[in-house]
Structures are given as C-alpha cells and as structure tokens.
Amino acid sequence: MGPVNWVAVVLAAGVAALLGALWHGPLFRTGRLIPQRGTAAANLGLTVFVMLIGTVMLGHNYARIGVDTLALKPWLYWMQSGGIAIAFIIPALWLASVRAGTDIRSRLIESGFWFVAYLAIGTVFWALS
Question: Pick from 52, 65, 82, 108: CA 20 to 30 A from residue 8's CA?
C-alpha cells in the first residue's frame, strides 16, 4: 500500500462542497446545501466534513490500489469514485427520500449532485497523482 495523498483528500472535499454550493444555488436553485438549518457558513462546514469522510475513504482506497496500477489504469479513479456514488450513496439517498416523501425532481437533483461530486473527487485525485 502506498501513502494516502492527504492534499488530494482535503482538496477533493473542498471541491465537492463548493460544487454542492453551485449545484444547490445557481444551477438548480434548491436554496440548500446538505443540511437545511443554520447559516450558510455552517452548512458549508458540515458539507466539507461529510465530504471529508468520503474522500478519506477514497484516498485510502487509491493508496491500496497503488500508484503504479493507477498510472496504468487511470480510469480507476472515476470507476471507484463513481461506483461508490452509484452503488452506495444514491440508493441510500433514494430509500431515505422515499420514506420522507420527497418528490422525484428533488431526488433526481440530489442524486445527480452526489454522482457529479464523486466524479469530481476522482478527478482531483487523478489530477494530483
């Protein structure tokens, strides 16, 4: 196992959080980040924290795959990050949203955000590899 790229971990979490601000702001105008209460700064801070959990896990995962393998197969950055979004995050989001009675439009917007955010995370790791 190689070392975890901690710079990429922190930067990827920040990029994903800022993407969330754009996604829920100017792009889809949902008017919210992940939490729906508190100040915008608190929402952004909590969003960064939540994204750090995922980026730490992905950073460890990429370290386990190894620099040499990732250099030969760079698509693994997106396959790993996008796969986690598709296989774990989006299904959990849909189950919780259905229970809460959230409309389909909101579920699609939220699912799209998590998929794009995780692809952006993979891109940051790739760019800093």
Answer: 108
What's the pLDDT at 97?
94
How many beta carbons lie within 10 A of that of residue 13, not counting itself?
25
| Closest by Cα among 120, 122, 124 to 20 | 120
Q: What phi-psi label fits residue 49: left (phi over 0), alpha (psi between -120 and 50 degrees) or beta?
A: alpha
Q: Residue 61's closest CA among 17, 128, 122?
A: 122
pLDDT digits (tens, 9 = 90+) for 25-56: 888 877 665 555 667 677 778 888 999 999 99
pLDDT at position 20, please?
87
Furthest C-alpha separation in the chain: 46
Q: Give the Cα separation of 94 and 117 in Å (integer).
A: 17
The structural domains of the chain, with segments of one domain joined by +, span 6-127
Token readout for 91 is 């299904």
